[in-house]
Amino acid sequence: YLGLLLVVVMDHALRLFLPDRFGLQYAPPSLALLTALYIGFRVKRTGQLGYAVVLGVLVDALSSHAVGHFAFLFGLAAYVASRIRRYLPPDASVAYVVAVFFCSVVTACFALLIAIVTGNGHVGAGFARSVVQALATAALAPVFYPVLDRSRLFRKALGGRDYQFA
Q1: Closest by alpha carbon to 112, among 138, 130, 135?
Q2: Cα angle at 53 between 50 and 57, to 5 degrees?
Q3: CA–CA distances in Å: residue 26 to residues 1, 62, 114, 128
Q4: How confident is the model at residue 43 (pLDDT cuts 50, 70, 90)?
């Protein structure tokens, strides 16, 4: 769980640093969502998708959203990624960029549905921001996934290196 906590801290630091420093007031990439998708792409057993839920709980603990919001979204994202994985070759990084974008948009749609049902969001601006964030997150995947592949914490938790990203 130390690796998950490290990702959450890095994700929050990125969100605090980017908008103030570079004027990117729209949507920085989500390292936490990228990690949840990584878990979904890498799992060998469905029970290991729980790591994505734990990641979501850690994000919930540091965010202003209701408890369980990110736990549900990251669990859903990891599940969708685990279903898509069977159609992707392990060494095609472009395919993973497209898959990360698709999964990010699916997750954003569910987040906006939750916002509509609970009355906590504006759909137009929220969806545009989510698409930009999905693009930024997908663009970061070819850089971030090899780093996670080399991490002993994630490799041990997810059961070895037999499924790598190019």
Answers
A1: 130
A2: 140
A3: 30, 20, 21, 9
A4: confident
- Residues written for the chain: 166
Q: Of 36, 21, 14, 51, which Cα lies nearest the Cα of 136?
A: 14
Give Cα separations from 14 to 55, 139, 158 (angstroms): 16, 15, 25
| Contact predicate 73/55, CB 8 Å | no
Residue 138: pLDDT above 50?
yes
Q: How many CB atoms lie within 10 A of CB 101?
A: 18
Q: In whole angstroms, what is the distance from residue 144 CA to residue 163 CA?
A: 15
DSSP string, 16-73: HHHHHHH---S----HHHHHHHHHHHH-SSGGGGHHHHHHHHHHHHHSSSPTTHHHHH
Spatial separation of the C-alpha atoms in residues 123 and 93, rounded to whole Å: 32
The confidence score (pLDDT) of residue 137 equals 87
Q: Distance of alpha carbon 104 from its chain centroid, rounded?
A: 7
Query: Do the beta carbons of residue 74 and residue 36 sit within 8 Å?
Result: yes
Q: What is the pLDDT at residue 166?
A: 41
